Amino acid sequence: MPFLSEIPDFTFKKPMAAMVIANSMLSAVPGVSAAGKNPKATLMTPNLDGNLILNGPDYNSEIPLSPRGCATPATITRAMFEMCSIDPVIVNAGLVNTPDFPCIDVYGKAGQDPRYNNAVENPEELYKRGITIGKHFGKYSDLLVLGESVPGGTTTALCVLRALGYSAGVSSSFIENPTNLKSEICRQTIERIKKDKVTSPFDIIKYAGDPMMPVVAGIVKGYNGQVVLSGGTQMLSVCAHIKSLGEKMPPFVTTIYVKNDKSAAIEKSALEVGATGWYVDPDFKNIGIDSLARYENGEVKEGAVLSGALWLAYMSGFSKEEIFTQIKDYMKIFRCKNSENMS
C-alpha cells in the first residue's frame, strides 16, 4: 500500500501534537504488555516515552527496547516532530511514577486492575479537565495530533469496547497476541459491570477503562480545530466512548501493523463503532535498521504517537525518502550503545 491509505480533505497551518500518558496496573500482570523489559518496568514506560518525545535522546543512553529487541516507537515520534518543527505537549492523566519533565497534569490517579477494583477514579472530572486543556490547545493551533502511551491499554480498550456492546478484538504489543489472557481479564471485568448493572458511559470507564480515555475524550470535546487521534484499538475505544457521550468522533490513524493484526480486526471493529480509520505503512522492513524491522513481524506495532507523527510528517510535505533519512540519521545517535545493522 502507499505510505498513507488516504489523504484527508483538509488543510492546516498551525499543527500541534500532544500525548496523554497514564498507567494501568494491568500492564504489571505478566503476559499482558511487551512495553517494557519486564512487567514491572512497564509502569515506567509512559514516563520514558514522555521524556524522550519531549526532550529528545540522551546521547549516552541506549535505544529503549522491548524484551525481543524492538526499538520504542517514541524514538521515531521524536524524529518526526523534529523534522516538522513540532514541540509536543505531554499530558499526565494518572501515573505511578511522578514525571521529571514539564507536562500538563490533570491530577488523576493510575488506573487499577478492573477485575478487582474500579479502574478509573472520577472519570467525569478527568473529562472536564480534558475539555479545559482542549480549549487551551485550540487557541494556538488548527490541527491537533493526539496520541497516548498507556502500557496494558489494549486490554482496557477491549474491556471498554465489550462493555459498550461491541464485539471488537484488540491488538497487542506482542507478536503473538495473548488473547486468552485478555479475554479472561475482560470476562471478569464484564461480570463486575453486569453484577452492578453499570450502563452509563462514565461508569463504564470507571469500571473498565484507564485514565487516558476520559482525558482524550475531553480534549477532543474542547478543541475547536481538527483532531486526529494517533493509535489503534486504544484510540478506537476512545472513539466508542466519545460516541457513547453523544459527541462526534474524530478520525484515528494507526499503522498497517495494527491493520494486519488478525486478532485485532481493526477495520471491522472501526466499521462496527462507526469510526473513520486511516493507516500508515512505515515500511520498516526496507529501512535497514534491525530494531525497527522487527515491527514487520508484528511486534510493538504502534504507540507513543508513532502513526500520528509519521502521518503528520507526510501531510506536512515530506516524502517517504526524506522520512527514512531522518529516521536513519536520528537512530545513529544511539549506534554506539546498541549494536545493530544500519545501512
From TrEMBL:
It comes from the Archaea. Transmembrane segments: none annotated. InterPro entries: Nict_dMeBzImd_PRibTrfase (IPR003200), Nict_dMeBzImd_PRibTrfase_arc (IPR002805), Nict_dMeBzImd_PRibTrfase_sf (IPR036087). One of its GO terms (molecular function) is nicotinate-nucleotide-dimethylbenzimidazole phosphoribosyltransferase activity. Belongs to the UPF0284 family. NCBIfam families: PRK04447.1-5 (NF003372). This is UPF0284 protein L1994_08130. It comes from Methanomicrobium antiquum. The lineage of its organism: Archaea, Methanobacteriati, Methanobacteriota, Stenosarchaea group, Methanomicrobia.
